[in-house]
Amino acid sequence: MKTLIALFLAGFASLALASGSSTVDPSSVEHYNYGSKLDIAKVISLSSIPDVCEVVPAQMIYEDSHGQRHTLEYQVMGDGCSNH
């Protein structure tokens, strides 16, 4: 099921708009937990995924259906794993 969540969040990457770099107040970051109810109307940006073979934190900035911006931190598998 966690794989489905990761795929769900990754799916939003294709809809993301580049917004340039911005600083985020660490106290305003929401942490995703399995079963969290998300209201994502528009993805603003996604952090880059490092080239490592381990689980790493990633962030997504999005707007909800009321136009409020949120920063969500979640766990993803790094891009450094391969099956050669």
> Proportion of β residues?
25-35%
- Give the number of domains: 1
Number of helices: 1
Total DSSP E strands: 4
Helix content percent band? 10-25%
Q: What is the CATH homologous superfamily assignment?
A: Protein of unknown function DUF2790
- Main sheet strand line-up: 1-4-3-2
Name the CATH architecture: Roll
Largest sheet: 4 strands, mixed
Radius of gyration: 13 Å
Structural class: mainly beta
Mean of all residue-level pLDDT scores:
79
Organism: Pseudomonas versuta
Keywords: Signal
Signal peptide: 1-18
InterPro entries: DUF2790
Tell me what you see in this structure.
The protein is mainly beta. It has one domain: Protein of unknown function DUF2790 (Spermidine Synthase, Chain: A, domain 2, Roll). Helix content is 12%, strand content 31%. The chain has a four-stranded mixed beta sheet, with no helix packed on it. It starts with a helix and ends in a 7-residue tail after the last strand. About 13% of the residues have low confidence.
